[in-house]
Specification:
heterodimer; A: mainly alpha; B: MetI-like fold; 2 domains
């Protein structure tokens, strides 16, 4: 960035050492990421090569991880479906509707949701949310029971997949809404004023100027939220009552676990090949979240470049 | 609710009666309030029949009120404005809905947490405690030790990386590092824990539980946060300052150390504080790398340590025979955890407000 044009820079030793250290730190970060992959693979390897009957469950690694992977994806998809519309609405509220003077403070308040440790969400989910959801689940079972998602029988504790998805949705809400807020705020004022000058109502202005401009940012933000939801551990470990395999029944007490929650719950008591199996499942999670995050960042960054050049 | 469609020209189309040939009626602010009051009335009537709880009461009032606003506005102002009002109502309710978990969580944690918020909680460990009493001294100390160690590892690496990206980096390496730091932000915390375990197993054998392993795991989570915030702050340092320093013949590295970093120090401190807040509540990586202990252990290189989040987790999930004492301790631990995180956030904001360089004119 700086000092690009001196004809013959005098390289002092201090400069060389300092520049080298800085560069080394940058390279170290790349090494850490590579190290995460390498060490996970090394420790997962025994589980990959072990005979099927040694893996917990006795049917081999694939059938051990499959229900976990299913649970992970299901919980994350529920969370995303619930959180995205809400996050967009909140971002619109803060950027377009709230009084200008309050907007920043309200933004902080929403960001507070991101500061709460995930284990506290777990506590809250088990003791506050889950029992309060039970009557609602009963109602779902009675009235919408013909949909397989709500077939029941209703869990008496409320610690179901839907509750877990709900807690996750609250946890990723601030992530999505922060990015949506950012892109909505960048909407060119000229676009907005042009829409209003043509007689558009505020909603029409938002639909014509703000949403199209921010849509790719919202998609990127949602994917970041998805990455977070996939890897979320403690809240799920506490809230979800686990038993049984793959099922789409969201309100019963038999739920598949998620990869992260399963590791957290099983790891402290495991030894030998079980540990390697858990690490192998962690590797799967790492690969998936890595891919999702890379996609999300690519979308968000491309948008940033585009808007930087365009406006 | 804000004023009546304030984005329209404020005076020109105002239906004041005088001067406008066409009469257009509008829903006033009191009219909207009236709609919601009517909705509340409907819910009171419904309550007599069905017996509603608070949540249904509020949700019903908002839903019926919104429908009334839409209906009234549609008949008075036409479909376009009606739709606009509908969206306004929805957006306000969305924000209100997001406040429900925040407020209920804060209330619940404080209500249950203050029960055991006493001197004993801060001065006792769980060594030899069965049932009543006991505290989290060992867990608080463990959290402090591990967090300090994490900060010690993460801040130099993160800061130097940010310096590289802003002051030195160029071309493909810079792009690659920026991108990987972004991606690293999204590593699931449990995976970071598994990585640290896998790393330490190689040296210490299976079943290793060490405080330092926990610090390494947390560093994987903290470094990218430090890099991102430090990068943002260093970019804000005006180039004039650097150039003035070079003009005086100061070498680049001394310029960075004596000019750039001191200028940005408030922002850097804010970023580091927020990064600490981000990792201090992490449970999963510590669960797999550090484990839990009942006694106080200050040595991160020697065996298991208790940490506050893991302590809370085990007190809740394995409370022992009369469970209520352990569960009370778990809630108090959760309360302290939230207080720590919020305190760090407040400190960060104070730092950035108090020590920020005044923009020179």
């Amino acid at each position: 960035m700086t000092s690009t044009s001196s004809s013959r820079p005098v390289l002092r030793r201090g400069d060389r050492v300092f520049a080298g250290t800085a560069k080394g730190a940058g390279i170290l970060i790349m090494l850490i990421l590579a190290g995460v992959t390498v060490f996970l693979v090394v420790e997962a390897a025994p589980a990959l090569t072990a005979p099927a009957e040694d893996i917990p469950g006795g049917d081999g690694l694939a059938s051990y991880i499959a229900p976990l992977l299913f649970g992970t994806l299901l919980a994350a998809v529920i969370a995303l479906a619930l959180a995205t519309p809400l996050a967009v609405a909140i971002a619109l509220f803060i950027t377009q509707y709230a009084p200008r003077r309050l907007a920043q403070g309200l933004g902080y308040v929403v960001d507070l949701l991101a500061a709460i440790p995930s284990i506290v969400y777990g506590f809250w989910g088990v003791f506050w949310l889950a029992p309060k959801m039970v009557p609602f689940y009963r109602w779902l079972e009675d009235n919408l029971g013909f949909i397989p998602l709500f077939a029941g029988p209703t869990s008496a504790t409320g610690r179901t997949m839907l509750t877990a998805g709900l807690v996750l949705a609250i946890m990723i809400l601030p992530i999505i809404s922060a990015i949506a807020r950012e892109v909505f705020r960048q909407t060119p004022t000229l676009h907005r004023e042009a829409a209003l000058a043509l007689g558009a109502t505020r909603w029409e202005m938002i639909r014509m100027a703000v949403l199209p401009y921010g849509s790719s940012g919202v998609i990127g933000g949602a994917m970041l939220g998805l990455g977070r939801a996939l890897g979320e551990t403690m809240a799920i470990a506490l809230v979800l009552s686990v038993s049984g395999g793959i099922t789409f029944n969201l309100i019963s007490s038999g739920n598949p676990s998620t990869i992260a929650a399963n590791v957290a719950l099983q790891f402290p008591e495991s030894s030998g090949i079980d540990v390697n199996t858990l690490i192998a499942s962690g590797l799967v999670l790492f690969v998936i979240t890595f891919a999702v995050n890379m996609g999300a960042r690519a979308i968000v960054n491309r948008r940033a470049e585009f808007s930087g050049a365009g406006s | 609710m804000t004023a009546v469609v304030p984005t329209r020209s404020p005076t020109g189309s105002r239906p004041s009666g005088r001067g406008s040939t066409r009469r257009f009626r509008r829903l006033s602010r009191s009219g909207m309030a009236g709609c919601f009051a009517a909705a509340l009335l409907v819910m009171v009537v419904l309550d007599q029949w069905l017996g509603l709880n608070v949540a249904l009461y509020v949700a019903g009032t908002v839903a019926v009120g919104t429908a009334l606003v839409y209906g009234v506005s549609r008949s008075l102002e036409g479909p376009r404005t009606a739709k606009d009002r509908l969206v306004t109502c929805l957006v306000y309710s969305a924000f209100g809905l997001a406040m429900v978990p925040l407020l209920s969580l804060a209330y619940e944690v404080i209500r249950r947490g203050v029960e055991r918020l006493d001197g004993q909680f801060f001065t006792w460990s769980l060594l030899g405690v069965l049932g009543e009493g006991g505290g989290a001294y060992h867990a608080i100390m463990g959290t402090l030790v591990i967090t300090a160690l994490t900060t010690l590892i993460s801040v130099p690496i993160g800061l130097m990386t940010a310096v590289y990206l802003v002051e030195y980096g160029s071309g493909r390496l810079k792009k690659a590092i920026t991108f990987l730091v972004d991606v690293m932000t999204g590593i699931p915390s449990i995976v970071a824990g598994l990585f640290a375990y896998a790393l330490f197993v190689i040296f210490f054998g299976p079943g290793v539980r060490l405080g330092i392993a926990g610090a390494v795991a947390l560093s994987v989570l903290m470094i990218p946060v430090v890099v991102r915030s430090a990068e943002e702050v260093l970019k804000l340092v005006p180039n004039d300052l650097r150039e003035a320093s070079y003009a005086l013949g100061v070498p680049k590295w001394r310029t960075i150390l004596k000019v750039v970093i001191p200028t940005a120090i408030a922002g850097l401190a804010t970023g580091v504080t927020l990064a600490i807040a981000r990792v201090i509540g992490e449970t999963a990586p510590l669960l797999v790398t550090v484990g839990i202990a009942n006694a106080t252990n200050f040595d991160p290189f020697d065996g298991r340590m208790a940490t506050l989040p893991v302590y809370a987790f085990y007190q809740l999930t394995q409370p022992g025979v009369p469970p209520e004492f352990a569960i009370d301790r778990a809630w108090t631990a959760a309360l302290i955890l939230i207080a720590l995180v919020m305190g760090l956030n407040v400190i960060a904001r104070l730092i950035s407000r108090l020590f920020a360089p005044k923009p020179g004119r």
